[in-house]
Amino acid sequence: MEVGLFGDRRDHLVRSSEGLFDLMRFAFYYGQYSGCDDAVIGIHPRHAPFYQRFFALEQIGEARSYATVKNHPVVLLRLNFKAKRDALPRGLRFFSDNQIPGDIFANRFLFDQGSMEGSTLERYLAYRSKAAKAA
Fold this sequence. Notes:
135 residues, alpha+beta, Aminopeptidase, 5-stranded mixed beta sheet, 5 strands
C-alpha cells in the first residue's frame, strides 16, 4: 500500500498534529483491513528519523530527487504490517491504543475492476485518457 499526502505546510505542526496522527491511524487500519503486507511512504530524508523511531519504518532505498516535488529529495520508507515487535514504538502504540474496527471500511471504494465498471471515476479516467491522446 502506498501512502501519501501526510505533509503539512504550517510553521507550527502543533495545531494540526492530532488530525495528522488520526489520518495516519486510519491509513494504518485501512491497510490492515485490506490485507496489505506493507505500507510505503516517500518523504524528505530530513523527516526519516522521526518515522523510523516513531512508527518503526525502515528505509528501502537511497534518496532521489523528483521533479514532481520541485526536485527535492525523497526517501522511501516501509512499514511491515506483519512484523513481530517486542515493544511498540510510540506511534504504533498510539494506533494500538486507538483501534479502528474493520467494519468502518466495509463500504469503501476498492478500485477493483468490478467496482470501477460504469463508475463516475471510470468515465473520468476514460475522458482524461482520450484528452491526453488528442493532445
